[in-house]
Amino acid sequence: MKEILILKNAKILSDNGDIVSTDIKIENGIISEIASGISYEGELIDAGGLFVSAGFIDVHVHLREPGGEHKETIKTGSMAAAKGGFTTICPMPNTKPVPDRGERFDDLLLRIKESAVVKIRPYGAITEDSKGEKLTNFKVLKDKGAVGFTDDGVGIQQAGVMYKAMQEVAKIQLPIAAHCEDNSLILGGCIHDGKKAQELGLKGIPSVCESVHIARDILLAEATGAHYHVCHVSSKESVRVIADAKKAGINVTAEVSPHHLVLTEEDIISSDTNYKMNPPLRSKEDRLSLIKGLEDGVIDCIATDHAPHTEEEKSKGMYDSPFGIVGFETAFPVLYTKFVKTGKWTLKQLVDWMTIKPAAVFKLSNIGKIKAGYCADLTLINLDIAEKVDKNAFVSKGKNTPFDGWLCYGWPVMTLVNGKIVYKK
Ligand code: DOR
Ligand code: ZN
Ligand code: ZN
Asked: How many distinct structural domains can be found in the chain?
């Protein structure tokens, strides 16, 4: 029996960026028709003229399960994602244990099957236990469904290890997603090595800590033909070397996180660890260059780096608290308010960077666009009502956000995955 659902009175983006009114017909979880006045023949949802986007895709998230369930679980993380309008998310392997072999990846998939409310496409690790030494079996992990490979949380310190990893992924056509950080350049820092670190008397992490790895890896990608994806780009030098690499035809893509687009070191309130993340918030010039990089296509997409930690863990001061902030439940409203509401970006630019662009980078098929034949992964958003971010209302276990109290527009009110409601305000 065919399950039919009609989403009536939706406003969607047309290919040229205009907003048009339409109905969307969904058959067995797949979009089958987009037209006005589709006749009713099944279940009905009235969107009431709300904006409907393709569900957001987040290619960089931390769900903590297994091993870090006190911070987040696949259930709470995926529910927070649904509340933020995300319908596909890609968790990083810095869990305990690390999904670095078949059995562990199988266990992760089983947990996902049991408790996820959105689509989850995990990464496999590049090296065993993400220690940066011995490569995992990429073919085995690919066959089980890995979306790519990464040791996110730490950089791959040895060029030779990255070189071999790239030779291997080039054979199986999956990307390496790199957390770029040279351990010898962290220098004991906890925030960016700039004005604010000086002012607060804190040790800083210089931008070269990141950019030196990106420059190295780009040359390795050129030498091996691998698809190299740069995680959470944070500095202007990084943007420049990625731009040069793209010009040279090297297969490199990149993501930027909402916090690096919106905040700088100058926003850091002394000792507030909700401004501590890795890579750190950098200078005003860095932020402007990230925005321009995104606008110019040097940076391909936006990814949150949702990194939940408990309040207790985050209460240990700037040096001893863990790096990271949550992102699912604030990403769209913060970016919409800051960039679209102000006229800097079009709605289509922002939506594309959170849907079809990440889908293209990771070759995720049939998602990221409202189109006949695509999955009915949809997000209904109220663009017109302003509400304050309230961290205590987060579904995520993590309340570690610098955006608490921000007045934002663009709140998701309903999220559908394969035509099924997974979040409703
Ligand atoms: O801020 C961060 N948090 N950066 C990372 O690289 C890791 C992440 C985490 O796992 O908490
Ligand atoms: Zn990282
Ligand atoms: Zn991360």
From this structure: 2
